[in-house]
Each structure stands twice: as structure tokens, then as C-alpha cells.
């Protein structure tokens, strides 16, 4: 078993309520013992600050703290236990700094009386402190982004201009770049009017000596990015990314904030229309979007494989069956052959070869009959789940509001903690905490339910679509036959006598 090395930090206290250093250490050690046999205390990592006079010096200037930080950096221990971190720092601001300092070096911090453990961030005292810290940082980030939003509303561009445009240095808006607008027009034109994909478009541009704004060759990805960017119909999309502050502590406990960039979900982007002159008309742009999503969804294989390869199995030996072509002078035959037989011969499996041109239409027939028998009410009842979805969404939002209220209560009590006795304060906080834990649990159960209902609705909607396509299937379109059969069927098992079809959807 790998040992987990633990350290203890204790501080001699000036007030009478405080525990002796010896007590702090022995209680911490006892706590570590209870964590499990793999947790061991290293006597070199017992840090004791005796600096009674040090109330006016920062905790980070104390010798034992300096040593602890040094050894944390050198990974001499993995867990640091405080009996009560709140008594270590000079003031409330220092306590989260102490914790943050060690955590940034990958140390798990446990503060027994504060009910704090880095592994479980859902805690009382520090939870509140970090709530306050988060609120502050969110405020700054909101302030920054409203400023940017304002700029975006005025059509002002925040970053470098995309290819096809140049940044007007005076108005900070986009002007069409006569040098590169042709590239954009060509990309859209080729994609809409000829059956050329993004790869070939990139190749054509490169062959004509065109390069991206950074001087690079065009790739499939850069072309795709152009095709989906609404900037080319005159819109500015704001909020694809958001900046947030990340806190870091230096050796003196001083906190610095670093900007980090977070990607935002597409649904939360903000589009401001008609902020500059478009290069592409909307009709073209939207038909491109349709074409792109079509290609993405039912990607028909480049080669029309044999429709049943991959889902057809031999009932005698359980192996898959593959298709082979045989030609005579005037005709070409296709056969499905058991892989075992194909590899090892007739002795290994006696499954007879099956004529593909007879088997495929009969499978299609069987599936069509099955789909026709499937009553339309059966599908509809399982597809119309919008009431359930609405109800679940309402319940989730009600609980989220309650959760916000509890958070607010916690902050209120924390801010007025001087008004309570320590006992009453802890009791109230514990009560709020357990309520918040319960609500979190309820929310996650509801969210699971919601996604299950949505999933089932999707599947039903899918079946309706598939059924429609299947009943109008042109059997000579081998690619389409293959796609639809693979969408609907998990496995087909055959022998000379019978065919078993296992569908991928329960309700079929
Ligand atoms: Zn076989």
C-alpha cells in the first residue's frame, strides 16, 4: 500500500480558550489515524509556531509557516492537518489564503474544527468565505463583460478581424477587405453550388496561392470555420468565451489574480445583428448551415458497403457474415458467407451461403411489415412527453431558487456571525448546510429524470422519421438501404430455417 504522508500545523495561542500546542498536535494525529492505515505522520512535518508576539505579523512571515510552505513545494507531505485553521491566521482574510496556498501545491488541507477538507469543498466556514470571494470575482467579470457587450452592440470589434474584413482603426468596426472578400465568396459558392467538400475547397484555395490571415495554408477546419461564422452575414457574435479570475498565492500569502478563458455553450452566445456590411447573403448562408448539418447527421459511407455487413450473424456458430462477389461470364452474384466457414472451411461451420440479392429485399420486406403494424398511437404516446418535460423543468427551477435562498441565508448569517454565540452560529450553519445538501441531491435526481425523458422523446421522434423514410424506401439505393437498416436493427441472425431480427428500439 502506498503511504500518504501527513503533516500537522499547530499554533501557540494567546487567548485562554485556545488549545495547547500539544493538544492540537495529538488531536490532529488522532484524526489522521482514523483516516486509514495508509495515512502516516512524518515527525519532520510537524510545524509549530510559537511566535506569540506575532499577531501583527502576517502568518506567512512566521518561521514554521515558511518551512511548511517550503516542504509543501518539495512534496515532502501530501496532507496537512490543522486543528482549527481559523485560529492560525491573523484575520479572516488570511485563513482562506493559508488554505489556498497549500492547495495550489497539490496538498490536501484538513481543518478539523472548521469542518474543512480540500477533498470535500462543500463545507461550512470556508465554503462561506469562498462564496464571498466568488461573488466578488463574478462581479468584476460581469462588469468587464457588460462593457464588452456595449461595444459589441455598437458593432465594435474586440479582437482581430476575421479574413474577408479589416478593422477600421477609427470606428473600430469591420470594413470589407477588397483583397480577401473574394476568398469568402468562393468558399460559400463552392460549398453551395458544387458538390465540393471542405477539404477540396481548402486545396483549391491553397493551389491558387491563397493563405489565411496568419499566412498559413487553408485546412478543412479553417474552411469549416468560415462557413459557419455569422460574421459574414453582418452579425457580431459575442460571448463565445468568458474571462474569469483564478487566484494564486505567493510565498508571503499575497494573492494574485490571473485571467483564464472559459468557453461558453453555444446556446448562451449573444448575436447582435447587422453590425457591419455582409459579404454573403442570408439565403446562401442558411442553406450552407443546412447542408453542413445534413452531412454531419446522416453521413452515408463513401463506399456503398453491402447493406447487411456488420449486423448479419450466423445462427449456427454466432460469427458475423461477410459479403463476397462472384462473377460468371454474364452475371455477378453477391453472397453472404459465415466468417468461420470462410476462414476454416465447411467442417468448422455448416452454414450455407446466402444469396444477397434475395436476402436483402426480404429483410426490407420484413422490417416494412413490422413498421406498418406499429400503431401510430403507440409512437405518438411515447413521443409526446412535453408535459413531463415542462413539469420537471419547473420543479428544477423551483428548487434552484430555494438553493439560492439558502446560499443567501448562509452569507447573511456569516456576515452577522458576531451576533450569535458560537454554538448557535454553528447550529444554524449546519442546518443550512444539510438543507442545501438535500436540495442538491433532489436537483440531481430531477435532472437525471429530465434527461431520461428527453432521451426517450428523441428516440421516439427518431422512429417516426425512420419509419417514414423506410416505408418510402427505394430499394435500389443500396447506400440508403444500408443506412436505414443499420439505424433500426441491432442484429439479424439467420440459419436456413429462420431469421431473427433484434431491433435497436424497444417499441418496435
Ligand atoms: Zn457459422
UniProtKB/TrEMBL annotation:
Every Resolvase/invertase-type recombinase catalytic domain range: 5-155
Q: Which Pfam families match?
A: Recombinase, Resolvase, Zn_ribbon_recom
The cross-references to InterPro entries, in alphabetical order and at most eight, read: DNA_bind_recomb_sf, DNA_bind_recombinase_dom, Resolv_N, Resolvase-like_N_sf, SSR_resolvase, Zn_ribbon_recom_dom
Give start and end of each Recombinase domain. 162-298
Q: What is this protein called?
A: Recombinase family protein
Write down the species: Paenibacillus pseudetheri
